[in-house]
Amino acid sequence: MKGLNLLCCCVASLLLLSTAEEVEDTSEPTKRDRSHLENTLKLNEDKPADDFSGVLQRLRKIYHSSIKPLEQSYRYNELRQHEITAYPGRTLGSSATDGEITSKPMVLFLGPWSVGKSSMINYLLGLDDTPYQLYTGAEPTTSEFTVIMHGPKLKTIEGIVMAADSARSFSPLEKFGQNFLEKLIGIEVPHKLLERVTFVDTPGIIENRKQQERGYPFNDVCQWFIDRADLIFVVFDPTKLDVGLELEMLFRQLKGRESQIRIILNKADSLATQELMRVYGALFWSLAPLINVTEPPRVYVSSFWPQEYHPDTHKDLFLKEEISLLEDLNQVIENRMENKIAFIRQHAIRVRIHALLVDRYLQTYKDKMTFFSDGELVFRDIVEDPDKFYIFKSILAKTNVSKFDLPNREAYKDFFGINPITSFKLLSQQCSYMGGCFLEKIEKAITRELPDLLGSIGLGKKPNILSCDVTGCGETPKNRYRKP
């Protein structure tokens, strides 16, 4: 009997211990302190956001009056169909809307499936365990392009509505078709960080999936967002380091945007030190052929989710890496107006160079044409070998254009294939008594108006007070194409 009682006591003890372990296992994991995140991103500050409405109004006026006329007259949007070869890097839309000019900085999340892109957005915005959080899981969960933006209340917006709203910057997405718009979704969230920035979550890259299976041009859509992103987070985790065709194509699209790219090795606290070093080296080995830069890219190693770091891992290192990445994000937000003005100026320079080149092609064509000449054969000869007629060299010799800013010659073969040279006018003919000359106006915007506007922000002046004495923007170049 005593033995039976002893056995019963042991069984009861085991049951109690098992129950206690189950209770312990079902307890919620400890959440990480968010004070460093709120301090770095200045989420606790009560001061109102900087009011740049006057600067934006002036920027819109400069674009519509000085840049857009030349852009439309010489069909710069047609050259953009070949922008990867013509101009690697960020470009404006075919004809920028006010929504694109006034839009907030955009942060784009790219990478393989289930590496923690959506979890990272939830963590940055503190959306975990709230009705606003993005769905996450071990399987491919994000099949849509999700735009997370600010709004007075939680609201979901369908892609067709976003594309139809001209006040937003997403109306050009209609060109990718209705199948894509069904895969586009917008979420408005009342969050202080979203007052200053917009996040875009993308479908994870699945290497065994063919383009046509998505039902829309995935790479073209990615290119559209890449062109407009101010910061691009390319996220990996220790289990997905292999590079396939789709990821290779993605990095090809990122060419020229290396300064905006931040590579993130997520879920780093799931590895021991030695394993982490091996994974870090393997990631560099995979990415080295894809990133054609002299300096190795910066890789941020951490774990971006709200749970505490796993024990016996490099917590201090992960925290410093996270703060460093947050500082990069905050820098983009703080410099959003300066970056936008500089970007519009860069766009204006490219439009001006394009107009000068088309003008030079047209002038050469007119010089070579005779009464008995075949126009098509004459121009084909010019397009096939522009160096024979000093098209590009003459632009460098007669105008203040850098040879490093010239587009690819091959792009103009396609451009003139759909735009006959006879459909354009010479720059000297693009003048009017009231409106002035297109070339003079865009040169004034590049050399005086936009630098002055940029200087007025740094000096805290009103944007309508412009002075080249302060900004040192230089002398306006003479228009060599205007008839005397």
Automatic annotation (TrEMBL):
Residues 1-20 form the signal peptide. One of its GO terms (molecular function) is GTP binding. Residues 28-43 have a biased composition (Basic and acidic residues). Residues 101-342 form the Dynamin-type G domain. PROSITE patterns: G_DYNAMIN_2 (PS51718). It holds the Pfam family EHD_N. Keywords: Glycoprotein, Membrane, Sarcoplasmic reticulum, Signal. GO terms for cellular component: sarcoplasmic reticulum lumen; sarcoplasmic reticulum membrane. It is a peripheral membrane protein. Residues 22-43 are annotated as: Disordered. The keyword Cell inner membrane does not apply. CDD domains: EHD. It is found in: Sarcoplasmic reticulum lumen; Sarcoplasmic reticulum membrane. Transmembrane segments: none annotated. This is Sarcalumenin. It comes from Falco tinnunculus.
